[in-house]
């Protein structure tokens, strides 16, 4: 007989999804109403304001796309890139490569600016590319590279792109709510994120924001947007202001309840307080990991607090350790991607998961599992080092 699915209670400290705040889970269970119901439309308007606060923007075109972060990425590219356009893509990890894929599927030419995985995007290399390609229309880069834990300087890179009359597309999937991000102050033209990271929401939605410069480019296109579903000219008819909405698609009503609740939680905590909380728990985790003798991939000045890429000690089986953490402790940490596969663990401290009890559980569990296999680490010191950091 087929029965209902009941997942185990895990502690999610990988690269995402992160632990969902219980208030968000409860919000999803509220009664479903129509996606054109006046009460739902009022909630949509409030959600837009909360998203604007999270992004630190006044952009009217700030909405959640009804699909995961990858669809937010595609929304930016299909609306802003036309066949024949040159786009400079800065790659310092997996997700810059996905940007390249988007450019090429839009019929554009991607000029790649390559940086070492685990390092921030180099502004000097970007300027060299801008000088070599005066025809470039867009510069795209990742603020918080989830595959490595590296953070790039959005303000500097955007200023540089604008100096050469390029629009900017920024990936903020892992940064929104967890680390400093100021869309208007930094002049970002188009940006996308995800709900399953530092917002402590369920996966399945992608907040995006476009400024007036980007909207003018969309309206001035010579060719139709290649995706009907992601065409912002159509979507805005549904996400526009006021009670009168044009039907575009059936919005994921209960998932939007969840996002609304997560944004209320963020608003009540305070955005800068959230950034500080992620930094606090990162510092404690860092103290514990370093006391064990583990090292970080990313230099401290370029390191994300919410995504920690840690080098696996020599001779240690990556999958065996992660399997033991999952099976014995119900604790999930992430594997490396691409050239980092088998070489690093990615430990997330995102949103609701960025808590003292999670930091201590992760350190204690990792200490026990590594001790069990006689890994070359310092045992029995990680938790006390983290507690000292909290003091």
TrEMBL record:
<dbReference type="GO" id="GO:0008453">
    <property type="term" value="F:alanine-glyoxylate transaminase activity"/>
</dbReference>
<feature type="binding site">
    <location>
        <position position="346"/>
    </location>
    <ligand>
        <name>substrate</name>
    </ligand>
</feature>
<feature type="modified residue" description="N6-(pyridoxal phosphate)lysine">
    <location>
        <position position="197"/>
    </location>
</feature>
<comment type="similarity">
    <text>Belongs to the class-V pyridoxal-phosphate-dependent aminotransferase family.</text>
</comment>
<dbReference type="Pfam" id="PF00266">
    <property type="entry name" value="Aminotran_5"/>
</dbReference>
<dbReference type="InterPro" id="IPR024169">
    <property type="entry name" value="SP_NH2Trfase/AEP_transaminase"/>
</dbReference>
<keyword id="KW-0032">Aminotransferase</keyword>
<dbReference type="InterPro" id="IPR015421">
    <property type="entry name" value="PyrdxlP-dep_Trfase_major"/>
</dbReference>
<dbReference type="InterPro" id="IPR020578">
    <property type="entry name" value="Aminotrans_V_PyrdxlP_BS"/>
</dbReference>
<dbReference type="InterPro" id="IPR000192">
    <property type="entry name" value="Aminotrans_V_dom"/>
</dbReference>
<dbReference type="GO" id="GO:0004760">
    <property type="term" value="F:L-serine-pyruvate transaminase activity"/>
</dbReference>
<keyword id="KW-0808">Transferase</keyword>
<feature type="domain" description="Aminotransferase class V">
    <location>
        <begin position="32"/>
        <end position="337"/>
    </location>
</feature>
<protein>
    <submittedName>
        <fullName>Alanine-glyoxylate aminotransferase apoenzyme</fullName>
        <ecNumber>2.6.1.44</ecNumber>
        <ecNumber>2.6.1.45</ecNumber>
        <ecNumber>2.6.1.51</ecNumber>
    </submittedName>
</protein>
<dbReference type="GO" id="GO:0050281">
    <property type="term" value="F:L-serine-glyoxylate transaminase activity"/>
</dbReference>
<dbReference type="InterPro" id="IPR015422">
    <property type="entry name" value="PyrdxlP-dep_Trfase_small"/>
</dbReference>
<dbReference type="GO" id="GO:0019265">
    <property type="term" value="P:glycine biosynthetic process, by transamination of glyoxylate"/>
</dbReference>
<feature type="region of interest" description="Disordered">
    <location>
        <begin position="1"/>
        <end position="22"/>
    </location>
</feature>
<dbReference type="InterPro" id="IPR015424">
    <property type="entry name" value="PyrdxlP-dep_Trfase"/>
</dbReference>
<keyword id="KW-0663">Pyridoxal phosphate</keyword>
């Amino acid at each position: 007989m087929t029965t209902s699915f009941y997942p185990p209670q895990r502690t999610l400290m990988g690269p995402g999804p992160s632990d969902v705040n219980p208030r968000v889970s409860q919000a999803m269970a509220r009664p479903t109403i129509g996606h054109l119901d006046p009460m739902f439309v009022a909630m949509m308007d409030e959600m837009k304001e909360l998203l604007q606060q999270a992004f630190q923007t006044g952009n009217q075109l700030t909405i959640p796309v009804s699909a995961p972060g990858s669809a937010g990425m595609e929304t930016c590219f299909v609306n802003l890139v036309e066949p024949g356009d040159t786009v400079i893509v800065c790659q310092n990890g997996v997700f810059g490569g996905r940007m390249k894929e988007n450019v090429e599927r839009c019929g554009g030419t991607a000029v790649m600016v390559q940086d070492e995985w685990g390092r921030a995007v180099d502004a000097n290399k970007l300027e060299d590319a801008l000088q070599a390609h005066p025809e470039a229309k867009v510069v795209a880069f990742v603020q918080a590279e989830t595959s490595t834990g590296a953070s790039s300087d959005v303000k500097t890179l955007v200023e540089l792109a604008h100096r050469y009359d390029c629009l900017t597309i920024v990936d903020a999937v892992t940064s929104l709510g967890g680390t400093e991000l100021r869309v208007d102050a930094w002049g970002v033209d188009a940006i996308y994120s995800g709900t399953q990271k530092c917002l402590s929401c369920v996966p399945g939605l992608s907040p995006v924001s476009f400024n007036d410069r980007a909207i003018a480019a969309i309206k001035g296109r010579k060719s139709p947007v290649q995706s009907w579903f992601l065409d912002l000219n159509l979507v805005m008819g549904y996400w526009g202001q006021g009670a009168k909405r044009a039907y575009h698609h059936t919005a994921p009503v209960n998932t939007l309840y969840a996002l609304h609740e997560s944004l209320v939680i963020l608003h009540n905590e305070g955005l800068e307080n959230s950034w500080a909380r992620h930094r606090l728990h990162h510092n404690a985790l860092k103290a514990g990991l370093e006391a064990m003798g583990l090292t970080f991939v990313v230099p401290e000045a370029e390191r994300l607090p919410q995504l920690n890429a840690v080098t696996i000690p020599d001779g240690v089986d990556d999958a065996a350790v992660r399997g033991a953490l999952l099976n014995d402790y119900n604790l999930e940490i992430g594997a490396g991607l691409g050239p980092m596969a088998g070489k690093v663990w990615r430990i997330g401290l995102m949103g609701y998961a960025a808590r003292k009890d999670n930091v201590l559980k992760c350190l204690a569990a990792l200490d026990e599992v590594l001790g069990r296999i006689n890994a070359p680490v310092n045992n029995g010191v990680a938790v006390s080092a983290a507690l000292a950091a909290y003091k």
